[in-house]
Amino acid sequence: MQAAIDEARQGRQEGGIPIGSVLMRDGKVVARGRNKRVQENNPIKHGEMDALFNAGRQRTYRDTVLYTTLMPCYMCAGTIVQFKIPKVVVGEDRTFGESREFLESHGVEVVILDLPECVQMMTDFIRDEPTLWNEDIME
Amino acid sequence: MQAAIDEARQGRQEGGIPIGSVLMRDGKVVARGRNKRVQENNPIKHGEMDALFNAGRQRTYRDTVLYTTLMPCYMCAGTIVQFKIPKVVVGEDRTFGESREFLESHGVEVVILDLPECVQMMTDFIRDEPTLWNEDIME
Lengths: 139, 139
Description:
homodimer; alpha/beta; 5-stranded mixed beta sheet; 5 strands; 41% helix; 22% strand
C-alpha cells in the first residue's frame, strides 16, 4: 500500500489527482499506476486503470491483488469484476466510494484499511481542488 | 451505429478485435473508438473506452449517447454508470454481454438493435480467434 500512496503523492506533485494503485502477484509488484486525468488529459486513466494499463496484457488476473488508495469508482470496480481480480485492498472509503456492494456481489474480496494518511490526502485535495475532483467523479 | 460498425471493421483489418463505439451529442459525433487490445497492447482499450479516451475531458456526459457494436462488458458498463451517460445503443447482445441489468439498475437506458451484421462480425471473429477473444473477456 505504501507504493500506492507514493504514486498518489507523485500524482499530486504533478498537479494531478492523488490516487495511486499497485497490482501485485505473489507478493511482487506487477505494475504501479496513478490517476492521470490532468497529466495526460485522459478521463479513463484512474489510478487502477493506469496500473492495469502499465501491466500490459496478462494471461490471467485471478492470482493478483489490486491495492488502491481510494475506494474504486464504478469504472474501476467494473474493470476489477471483468478482469476477475479476486481481491482489492483499499486505503480508505470515507471520502468516496459506493462500489463495495457491487464488488462483493460479484465475489471480489474487499479489504478496507481506513488509513488516516489516505483520508488526509483526499480531504486536502478535495478542499483545494473541488472543481477538478467533481470532474473526476462526474458530479 | 454505422460509424461504430465501420470502426469495428477497421479494427479487424488491423488484426484487432472488431468492436467499435461512437459517443454522440445532439446528433453529432463527439468521438469514435475501437478495441485496441492488439494494436496498442492495451487491455483497457475496449471500443467504448477508446471512444471516451478520444473524446478527452468533457464537462458532462449527461447529454450524450454511446453507440457500441456489442453489449458492454462490466468495465465499460461501470464506466457508463460512473460517467453518467444516460443511454447506450447496442448493436447486439447475442455473442456477449451480461451487464444489461447492472446498467438498467443504475438508470441507464439500454437499446438493443440486434443487428445481424454485428452478430455475424462477432461470430466470425470468435470462430477465427478464440484465444484472443477469451483473453479480451478474461475467460
